[in-house]
Amino acid sequence: MSDKAILHISGMTCASCVRRVEEGLREMAGVEKAAVNFATEQAVVDFDPAAVKPEQLGKKVRELGYEVVRID
Ligand code: 9UX
User: Fold this and answer.
1) Cβ count within 10 A of residue 60
2) Ligand 1 pocket test: which of 13, 41, 64 has the largest number of ligand atoms within 8 Å of its C-beta?
3) Which sequence spans correspond to the domains of the chain?
4) Which residues form the HMA domain (predicted)?
5) What 3-state DSSP class applies to 34?
6) Atom of ligand 1 nearest to the CA of 15
7) 3-71: what fold?
C-alpha cells in the first residue's frame, strides 16, 4: 500500500523549478509517483511509508532550494 502526501511549496518561479522538484523526488527510494503543479504550488507524492517518510520528502525539496510551507 502506498500513502499520498501533498507538499505545499513556495519559491518555484519557473517551469524548470517544477521539473527539478519532480525529478528530485522521483529519484528518492520509496517514491512511486511525484507530480508538481506550478499554479497551485503543490507536489502530490505517492510513496511507500515503509521506505520513506513525508518529512524526508520535505527535506529533499528544501535541499533543492525551495521552501516547504506545509505537508498534508
Ligand atoms: Mo527557473 Mo527555479 O530558471 O530555481 S529553475 S527559477
Assistant:
1) 19
2) 13
3) 3-71
4) 3-69
5) strand
6) 1
7) Alpha-Beta Plaits (3.30.70)
